[in-house]
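Bumping with the actual sequence this time:
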Amino acid sequence: MKIKLEPLTKTHSELAKVKELYYGSFPKNERIPMNLLLWKAKRDFVDFLVIYDERKYIGFTYLITDKDLTYVLYIAIDGDARSKGYGGRALAQIKEKYPNNRVILNIEVIDETASNYAQRVTRRKFYTRNGYESSTFLYRDRWGLYEVMIHGGKVHIEEFYALLEKFAGALLFSVFKPQITSSMEF
């Protein structure tokens, strides 16, 4: 298994597969329009990457970086490649790409009343097995509540806000209105 990451552009041969996986993996309320993702990926602090094993398409990830903090906005593994170790290898490849960075991501909070409770528990165990731990922060936007997990050190709320604002821009950030707080405060 030789994982490699390759930038995705509007003309990339795997764009249709990435779109299909994106729309099939994330609920509508969590999806940013694909054209906006591609446009933002032209910025030097954003990586929209196709994941390969040698030449075989595995999935994609979308990363936003500010200083030594990298945020995994999206990561998805193709259905045919799931449960074969590719998710963990892709996370390891992200750490190799950014060896000195702390890496954060959001997962749905563990809620026993949620219809996908078992999936949430499985997802959290997967990230824990791959070196992520709770940051003790919760992230709330207009669509949901998420636990912020981190690999590589602690993160401060102000750092996460700065990264999100850098990505969104001041106007969109003020409309989007994310809230990040200690898990004890929600």
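The tokens above came from a reply further down the thread. The first strand starts at residue 3 and ends at 7.
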